[in-house]
Amino acid sequence: MPFVTTTEMFKKAYDGGYAVGAFNVNNMEIVQGITEAAREQHAPLILQVSKGARAYANHTYLVKLVEAAVIECPDIPIALHLDHGPDFETCKSCIDGGFTSVMIDASSKPFAENIEITRKVVEYAHDHGVVVEAELGSLAGVEDEVNVSAEDSSYTRPEEVEEFVSKTGCDSLAIAIGTSHGAYKFTAAQCTRNEQGVLVPPPLRFDILEEVSRRLPGFPIVLHGSSSVPQEFVKMINENGGRLPDAVGIPEEQLRKAATLSVCKINIDSDLRLAMTGSIRKYFAEHPDHFDPRQYLTPARANIKAIVTHKLIDVLGCAGKA
Ligand SMILES: [Zn+2]
């Protein structure tokens, strides 16, 4: 199966009450860990590349790595998506360079300007058979070159979504309902603590999601910043020389609920970073004399595969849906 767009994936996900996982890729081991999990679970898959990933690994390397995954996984649909395209030129370069889906993130711009930029990307993308994700509202947190302070973040306003979608022609819409980028999604002051002393964040705004869905029936919604920051990996990092106090994410049961509603794409990046970093730190702590990258990247890749398998089955609900 060659690269696909997300159109068919989202239609099936919407009707089937599940979401497709969108995982960020930066190197070979990450691509392999994710795609081995999706192949085994027979799950549709979105591999996404940020501006930062293109700067780190180079556009051509990333496209070729994902093309290799498509060859190795002939039985599942795979889309290649640009995450947080900052402007028309970046989107155009990905559309011209083999991506099947792009995000234009003009959510920090005024409403009319967001419409204008998104519309321009949609026209070019649709002329080339590529689909477009846009964003309304803005998430707090830090992700590669996207950095929004809690004061500048804002929930999506449901009363704007119909005008935005009809004027831009976008194919899916990322909304802000309380998810956040990075491993530090919330300050301690925004949270309560459970019996283990772990921070519990404020619940997602399902009222906003439901109002958006009511206004856009059948339209695929996207959640960014949806890592859950598994405490087993935070602990693995902290016990092996790292320092990530009070890292906290979105509870998985809330994401599971969102996936049964109109949310068709859920972005997960930080959890894979934590799995990889924890695995490597643990390996080095246990084997201070080793220096072969294959040795410490093998458990890192295996733990990426394990966490993606868990997400596909227990959070996204997309296992067996390819
Ligand atoms: Zn994002």
Explain what this protein looks like in three dimensions.
The chain is of the alpha/beta class and 322 residues long. It has one domain: TIM Barrel (Alpha-Beta Barrel), CATH 3.20.20.70. It is 46% helix and 17% strand. It contains 12 helices and 13 strands. The chain has helices at 7-16, 28-41, 51-57, 59-72, 88-96, 111-127, 161-168, 206-215, 231-239, 252-260, 270-286, 293-316; strands at residues 20-24, 45-50, 78-85, 101-104, 131-136, 140-143, 146-148, 172-175, 180-181, 192-193, 199-200, 221-223, 263-268. An 8-stranded parallel barrel has the order 1-2-3-4-5-8-12-13, surrounded by 10 helices. A 3-stranded mixed beta sheet has the order 7-6-9, with no helix packed on it. A two-stranded antiparallel sheet has the order 10-11. Strand 10 and strand 11 form a beta hairpin. Helix 9 (231-239) runs parallel beside helix 11. It is globular and about 60 Å long. The N and C termini lie close together (11 Å). It binds zinc ion.
